[in-house]
Write a structure and sequence with these properties.
Number of domains: 2
Number of helices: 12
Order of helices and strands: HHEHHHEEEEEEHHEHEEHHHEEH
Strand content: 25-35%
Largest sheet: 12 strands, antiparallel
Radius of gyration: 20 Å
Number of strands: 12
Helix content: 25-40%
Strand order of the largest sheet: 4-5-6-7-3-2-1-8-9-10-12-11
């Protein structure tokens, strides 16, 4: 994973309504989740960011878009396996089970829940508003958590609730620097210490005429936070170099009010983007695609 892809994931896929995350969704997320993010399909559809980081909403929702069904929100939790085999996708909306089961799909009852299992991907409807997708094993584990009488609170679930309450878009990545593809020149004792020092990166986006972006790195000490903040001052430039020719670079050129702080063991970065500026940039890039002689 390179840094441009991480930024793209943050900008594109962490889109949830600014309300506390439903406890029913929280209980489905396993304690080993490394990255949790979500997509509010309607809100993202109204943002200019979709022009730069398009999402195929139909791909997510097609299996639940029966007559009268509508998917409103998608939450995705990735586990420790980089292959994505532990990924759980959660759908929230007005849902109904597919009326026809394809011949290559097996209908399996697991603890009273019907799982439609086909190859590497299975789906299950938990109630008229919540459905899940993933491997058969991942769905079994999620159903077990769903059916427990009570789920004890833990730091992960508390953090997810706090983030969803504070932002329109939110995400949480635990030990994220371990997943990045570091360039060869970064293989040093300093890079190794930074990877170990950053325990989590979290943050969110608030939508409006001005889009507010906030990112926090939770580190092991005040010294680690100060180091992370110092490195963050160079971060936009690194991103632009790494994503040359990618829309991420052009978007970062529009960033306003860049603020980087260290407070205790937390380093934070925030900036703003204008919806108007994004619309103008989208128009320029579209004109360039239509006529390569146009200069943005």
């Amino acid at each position: 994973m390179n840094t441009a892809l991480l930024v793209g994931a943050v900008l594109m896929t962490s889109v949830l309504a600014a309300a506390e995350l439903d406890d029913r969704l929280v209980r489905l997320i396993g304690p080993d989740a490394k990255l949790v993010y979500g997509v509010d399909l309607d809100r993202y559809g109204n943002s200019t960011l979709k022009e730069f980081f398009p999402i195929d909403a139909d791909e997510y929702a097609s299996q639940w878009q029966n007559a009268g069904s509508k998917v409103l929100e998608v939450v995705i939790a990735d586990g420790a396996d980089p292959s994505g085999s532990g990924r759980l996708t959660i759908f929230r909306g007005v849902l109904s089970r597919p009326g026809v089961t394809p011949a290559d799909v097996a209908a399996i009852d697991y603890n009273g829940v019907l799982i439609l299992a086909g190859g590497n991907q299975s789906i299950a409807l938990l109630d008229p508003n919540i459905a899940i997708a993933g491997s058969f094993l991942v769905l079994q584990e999620a159903i077990d958590r769903w059916q427990k009488a009570a789920i004890p609170s833990d730091p992960l679930r508390s953090t997810l609730r706090d983030l969803s309450r504070s932002y329109d878009n939110w995400f949480l990545a635990r030990n994220p620097l371990e997943q990045l593809a570091w360039p060869q020149r970064a293989e040093s004792v300093y890079a190794s210490k930074l990877v170990q020092a950053v325990e989590a990166i979290q943050g969110g986006i608030r939508f409006g005429a001005t889009i507010e972006f906030h990112l926090e790195a939770l580190t092991k000490s005040t010294e680690d936070a100060a180091t992370a903040a110092a490195i963050a001052r160079w971060w936009p430039g690194f991103i632009q170099l790494d994503s040359r020719g990618d829309p991420t670079s052009a978007i970062l050129d529009l960033a306003e009010n860049l603020t980087i702080l260290a407070n205790g063991n937390v380093a934070s970065l925030s900036f703003r983007l204008s919806e108007r500026g994004l619309r103008e940039l989208s128009g320029k890039l579209h004109a360039m695609r239509e006529s390569p002689t146009v200069v943005p």
